[in-house]
């Protein structure tokens, strides 16, 4: 969010009776705002042109510091020992990149059990942060149908539903092997990198959704008819569609 709201910022002591002006700014310098030290590493082209017209000699851009999270993640991946495999499941990067971004499709479902035989209008929302989907039904006025909060609650949508029920603990992210057992008196566990006995499920991704596609929503064939402008721009940028 906003670290410092728009205002005049005083200079650090002993010149706290004066304020920062355009003359105090350049690339690759440090400034102090309210006892916090910041380093200016670069600026946009408009700012560069403005400073050059003011007669300011610009310093060369500075290097951006490494991201601590990416650095630690890279160290963890490089230190992985093949004899004791460690699988790093990284979901934080996707969440930080796409949090709050939602693809919205307008759909119809031809309900064979409907008395009116009219297609039911739906809105499908795909959450880019965790690849989950929820669907809401748009009911016309005096439709005679009972309103429900959600046609489909938010969750990952399997492609080949309906699927059978699994026992608790069957579907897990990792498979753990008991290496020694109780007979030796010491138990040691490792991760099974071959994922023996793991249940593989295929879920809908953003690459599977497009206008005109028919998706399987737990046995119901839903047709994607349209989408909003943000969704169109997303597919133009990521997939060139």
From TrEMBL:
SMART domains: DM10. Keywords: Cell projection, Cytoplasm, Cytoskeleton, Repeat. PROSITE patterns: DM10. Pfam families: DM10_dom. Its main location: cytoplasm. InterPro entries: DM10_dom, EFHC1/EFHC2/EFHB. Residues 1-55, 99-239 form the DM10 domain. GO terms for cellular component: axoneme; microtubule. It is found in: Cytoplasm, Cytoskeleton, Cilium axoneme. GO terms for biological process: regulation of neuron projection development. The keyword Calcium does not apply. PANTHER family: EF-HAND DOMAIN C-TERMINAL CONTAINING PROTEIN, EF-HAND DOMAIN-CONTAINING FAMILY MEMBER C2. This is EFHC2 protein. It comes from Centropus bengalensis (lesser coucal). The gene is Efhc2.
